[in-house]
Amino acid sequence: MTIIRIAAAGLALLLAAACTAPAPPRGEVSTAASTACARPVRPPEAETPTTIDVIEQAYFCILGNYYSGATLDARSLLTAGFVALTQELNRDGRDLPGATMPALTGDRKADWAAFETAYRKITDQVPGLRDKLAIVTLEAIVAGLGDNHARWAHDVKRPLDYYDGDGYGLGLAANVNGPQADGDPGVTLPPLFVTTVQGGAAQAAGLRPGDLIESINGSAPFIDGQASPAINALYPQYPEARPVQLRLLRQSTGRRWTVTLKPGLYPRDPAALQAVQSKLLDDDIAYVRMTGFAPDSANRVLRAITRLRTGRTLTGVMLDLRGNGGGSPTEATRLVSAFAHGKVTAYQCTVDGKCQISRTDDTVELVGLPLVVLTDAGCASACEHFSSAVKDLRIGQLVGTRTAGVISGPAQGYLLSNNTTLGFPTRHHLGPNREVIDRIGVPPDHYVPLTPKDAAAGHDPALAKALALLHK
Hints:
Elements: H1 8-14, E1 18-19, E2 37-38, H2 52-65, H3 75-91, H4 108-125, H5 130-143, E3 151-153, E4 167-169, E5 172-174, H6 178-183, E6 194-197, H7 200-204, E7 212-216, E8 222-223, E9 226-227, E10 244-250, E11 255-261, E12 264-266, E13 276-281, E14 285-290, H8 297-309, E15 316-320, H9 329-336, E16 344-349, E17 355-359, E18 371-375, H10 382-392, E19 397-400, E20 411-415, E21 421-425, E22 428-430, E23 446-447, H11 452-457, H12 461-470
Parallel strand pairs: 14-15, 15-18, 18-19, 19-23
Antiparallel strand pairs: 1-2, 3-21, 4-12, 5-6, 7-10, 8-9, 10-11, 13-14, 16-17, 16-22, 20-21
Helix pairs in contact: 2-5, 3-5, 8-9, 9-10
C-alpha cells in the first residue's frame, strides 16, 4: 500500500522519537532493537547509507512498538521486502539465480536471520546496487504494514512552496488530489475536474474551474470508477518535476483540447497561506476555514469567532474543514471542547483492546452557537478525529462528502541509526462510539458534492446548504 501523503502535516508533528540501539555485529540478530526505541536526545545529523543493519533495526522496532506488533505475522513484512528486492534486480537487468526467498517459520528472530543471510548473499553479488536495494527493501517492509500513518522518511527534499509565499506546481487544484488517489481511491468519484486556478502555467494556458480533465500524460484519471495514481502528476512538489500533458473538455462550449503545463513558481494569494481564515456571512454567521490542526490552531479559530461576534449577535458557526489534512489530535480535542464538555472525543487502543481515552478539555469556554462543519475527502487524520466527535456527540451537522478515512492512529517517530526517521501508530484510533474510522471515513449528515457545473459557475453547494441549515 502506498503511504498516503494527505496527513503528512500530522505525521511530521509526531516523527520525533528515536531508535538508538547500536547496530548488531554482522550476521547476528539484535534483541535490543525492539526495546531501545526512545525519544531522540538531539536533532538527526546528516543521513548515512541504508544498510541491512538499518533494515534490521526498523524490523524489530516495528514488531516491538507498532500497535499490532505483538500479533503481527512478521513473515508478511519480510515477504514484502523480498518482493521489492527481486523486482529491483529485475528492473536493473541483474536478476540472480540464487535470489530466492528463504523458508520462514513464524519465529521472528530465526526468520530475520534467514532473511539477512539471503539478503547479504544477493547484495554481495551486486555491490553497485546495494544502496538502492536496501532502500526499496525497507520502503516495502514499512508499506507492508498497510497503514496510512506508517512512513519511513529518508532522502528528504524540501518542496519549493516555502519561498516567500510563492506556490510551486501547475497552478491548479482539482476535485481529487494525488494523496486521495494514492491512498484510498474508493473515496473519490469521477469525473476529474478543475476546481481552482491558482496561477502559474494553468492560468497562462487559460484553464478555468469546471474544465474536465480527461487524461493526464495519456493515462485515464479513473479506471473502473476508481481514481488512478496518474492524478499525482497534477501536484508536483519538487524542482525536477516534468511537464504534464492534460486532455481537457469544457462542457459549456464543447471545446476539447490538449495542453502541456510546466511546473514552476507562481505568486499565491496571501490569504491562502493562512491556516485559519474567517469572515462574516449573511451578517450573522461566523465562517471559519481551517486548513490544518497545527499548534494553537484551535485557539486561533476561537479568537476568530470572538472577533466576528464583537458588536453583533451571531446565529451560528460554519467551520470549513475541506482539504484539512490533519495535524495535532490535541488541537482536535481542544476544538471539540469549545462545543461540548464532559465528553469522550476518541479512543486510542492497543491490539488487546486497552484504550487511552481522549476527553474534552472543560477549561475551554463553550461557544454556545449552532455548528455546521463542511467536510470532504481531503479531511483526514485529526480532521476526522474532530468530525467524528461532532457527529457522534451530536454537537453539530456535517455537510459535504465523506472524509478521507486516513486515521489509523497518531504516529510515533523513531530515529534509525542512519539518521532517517521511521513513524507508525503505537495505538489505533476509534471514534467516540468506539467505531473504526480508518479506511471508512466519516459520512456527512447532508451529502452535497461539488459538480463541474458548480465549479464553472463559482457556486459552492455545500456552503449554501450549511447556510440554509443555520438559518432554520
